[in-house]
Write a structure and sequence with these properties.
Length: 64
């Protein structure tokens, strides 16, 4: 595989990661604080799960 194709695919895959991080940083600045205030059902995920799951989802979108 040519280097240019590798760079192209790396850019395509990483674009959702970078975009999601930049937009998410400003769009939901107080999300953790707000999430902890909400009344949640017992099956809701804990707050520390979200920073783990979102990059995986964005990576999946880039690969798709």
């Amino acid at each position: 595989m040519k280097i240019s194709k590798i760079v192209k695919y790396a850019g395509i895959i990483s674009a959702p990661l970078v975009g999601g991080r930049l937009i998410g940083k400003y769009a939901v600045q107080n999300a953790r604080k707000d999430y902890s205030k909400n009344k949640k059902p017992p099956f809701s995920p804990p707050g520390y799960i979200f920073p783990i799951v979102w990059p995986i989802l964005y990576l999946s979108m880039g690969i798709a």
